[in-house]
Structure to design on (371 residues):
C-alpha cells in the first residue's frame, strides 16, 4: 500500500509493483484459509464459507466507498457513466478501464480495477479449491505459471492489430482479466508448501532466485533499450519496471519477474526470516498491515483531498510537482489515508470481521488459519 501511495504521488514510478505483491499475498492467504481448515462440512457449505469470508472482508468498505461516490455525483448533478457504475458494482471494472469507461468524474476510482481482478480470481479459484482434489489444484497452479505468460503473449499479438497507443496496449495487459493469474498461483503454491512444512526450506533459495530473475530481466531490457531502442543516458532505464510496459515482449516478462521477486518476499515473511521479520514485527507496521485493505480503497481520495487543500492556488506544471512538493503530498496523503483506514476499520469493517470470527467459531474444524 505504501508503494502504491508513493506511485500515485509521483515519488516512486515503480510503486505499481506493490499490487503484484498484494496478488501473491492474496493467493497465499486465501489458500491457507481453506487448506488449513479440515472440515467435515459438505463441500457446498465449505464453498459458501469461502465466499462468505471474501464477501465480509472485501465488499463492505468497497461498496461503501463506491456508493458514496455515486451518491455524491448524483447530489451534485454530475453525469454518471452507467457502464462505469455497473463495472464497479459488478467487478468488471478492469475491463471497463481498458476501454476507457471505468472512471467516475470527480470521485477517484481508477485504482479499484485491481479489486475486480482479485474477485474474478476468487470466483474461479474458490470452486476449484473446494471441489477439486489437491493434486489437481497444485497441478493447475503450476501450469498457470506458464499459461499466464503465454496468455499475455497472445494478448499482446492481438493488441498489435489495434490502432491503440502503446500506453493503451500496455494498460490492456496490465489490467486484463486472468492475465496475471500466475501471481495468485505463486501465492497459492507457497501456501501448499507451508502446509506441507516445506516453505522454511525453500524460502531463502526462492527469494534468491526471485531477485536474480528480476535482476536478469532488468539487465536484459536496459540492454534492449540501449541496443534496440537507441536510448542513451538515463533513458536506458525507462520502461523497464516503470513507464510503459510495452514493446520487445516486456509486457510478457516484466510481470513474471516481479512475481518471482514478490514470491521470494512472501516466502521470507511467512517463515519469519530475520531479513524481513525485524521490520514486520513492529507494532505500527503490523497495524498498517491490518488496515491496509481499507487504506488501499481510500488512498486515492486522500491524495485528491490533499492536492486540493495544499495546492489549490497553484497551477501544477505538466511535468508534475517539484520533488519537495511531492514529498509533502506523499506525507500528508499517507497520514490521511492511515487515519481514514483506521477509523473505517475500527468503526465499520471490524463489525463484519467479528461476524466472520463468530461464524468460524461455529464451524467444525481441527485447525485455524488466517482468512
Amino acid at each position: 500500500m505504501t508503494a502504491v501511495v508513493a506511485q500515485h504521488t509521483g515519488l516512486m514510478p515503480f510503486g505499481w509493483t506493490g499490487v503484484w505483491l498484494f496478488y501473491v499475498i492474496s493467493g497465499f492467504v486465501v489458500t491457507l484459509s481453506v487448506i488449513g481448515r479440515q472440515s467435515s462440512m459438505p463441500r457446498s457449505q465449505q464453498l459458501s464459507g469461502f465466499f462468505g469470508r471474501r464477501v465480509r472482508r472485501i465488499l463492505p468498505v468497497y461498496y461503501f466507498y463506491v456508493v458514496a461516490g455515486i451518491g455524491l455525483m448524483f447530489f451534485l448533478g454530475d453525469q454518471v457513466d452507467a457502464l462505469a457504475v455497473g463495472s464497479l458494482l459488478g467487478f468488471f471494472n478492469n475491463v471497463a478501464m481498458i476501454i476507457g469507461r471505468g472512471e467516475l468524474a470527480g470521485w477517484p476510482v481508477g485504482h479499484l480495477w485491481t479489486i475486480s481482478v482479485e474477485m474474478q480470481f476468487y470466483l474461479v479459484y474458490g470452486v476449484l479449491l473446494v471441489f477439486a482434489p489437491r493434486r489437481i489444484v497444485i497441478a493447475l497452479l503450476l501450469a498457470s505459471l506458464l499459461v499466464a505468460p503465454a496468455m499475455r503473449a497472445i494478448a499482446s499479438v492481438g493488441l498489435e492489430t489495434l490502432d491503440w497507443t502503446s500506453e493503451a496496449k500496455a494498460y490492456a495487459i496490465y489490467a486484463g482479466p486472468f492475465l496475471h493469474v500466475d501471481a495468485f498461483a505463486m501465492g497459492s503454491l507457497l501456501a501448499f508448501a507451508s502446509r506441507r512444512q516445506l516453505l522454511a526450506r525453500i524460502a531463502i533459495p526462492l527469494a534468491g532466485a526471485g531477485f536474480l530473475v528480476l535482476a536478469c530481466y532488468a539487465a536484459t531490457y536496459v540492454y534492449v533499450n540501449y541496443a534496440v531502442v537507441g536510448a542513451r543516458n538515463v533513458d536506458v532505464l525507462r520502461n523497464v519496471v516503470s513507464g510503459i510496459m510495452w514493446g520487445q515482449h516486456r509486457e510478457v516478462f516484466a510481470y513474471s519477474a516481479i512475481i518471482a521477486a514478490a514470491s521470494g518476499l512472501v516466502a521470507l515473511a511467512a517463515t519469519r526470516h530475520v531479513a524481513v521479520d525485524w521490520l514486520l514485527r513492529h507494532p505500527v507496521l503490523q497495524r498498517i498491515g491490518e488496515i491496509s485493505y481499507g487504506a488501499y480503497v481510500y488512498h486515492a481520495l486522500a491524495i485528491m483531498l490533499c492536492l486540493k487543500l495544499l495546492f489549490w492556488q497553484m497551477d501544477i506544471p505538466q511535468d508534475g510537482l517539484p520533488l519537495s512538493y511531492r514529498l509533502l503530498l506523499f506525507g500528508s496523503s499517507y497520514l490521511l489515508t492511515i487515519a481514514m483506514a483506521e477509523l473505517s476499520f475500527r468503526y465499520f469493517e471490524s463489525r463484519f470481521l467479528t461476524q466472520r470470527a463468530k461464524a468460524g467459531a461455529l464451524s467444525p474444524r481441527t485447525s485455524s488459519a488466517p482468512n
The two ends are 19 Å apart (CA to CA). The chain has two domains: 19-281, 282-348. The CA atoms of residues 290 and 345 lie 9 Å apart. The longest helix spans residues 323-361.
